Amino acid sequence: METAAQRGFTLVELLVIMALIATLAGVGYPQMRGFAARSSQQAAVSQLQSALALARHTAITRREAVFLCPPGG
Questions:
Q1: Would you give per-residue pLDDT tens digits along the chain (73 residues)?
Q2: What is 34-70 written as a DSSP string?
Q3: Counting Cβ atoms within 10 Å, is residue 20 exposed (0-12), middle (13-18) or buried (19+)?
């Protein structure tokens, strides 16, 4: 028969696990920020490429000059 002392984790074990998690989070957070920045930049480049392709297609279809303006402008 198990007693209460034989089940669960000790306070020291929990503190060690928390320290490991904090260390891994500290290492992973800057890398995650870099990933988010690269992802955002790639999305902006993709959006610009799509806008340029649409403007080119529209210009060819209409056989006239087409202007690409920045959003909100």
A1: 555 556 788 999 999 999 999 999 888 888 888 899 999 999 999 999 999 999 999 999 999 999 988 877 5
A2: HHHHHHHHHHHHHHHHHHHHHHHHHHHHHTS------
A3: exposed
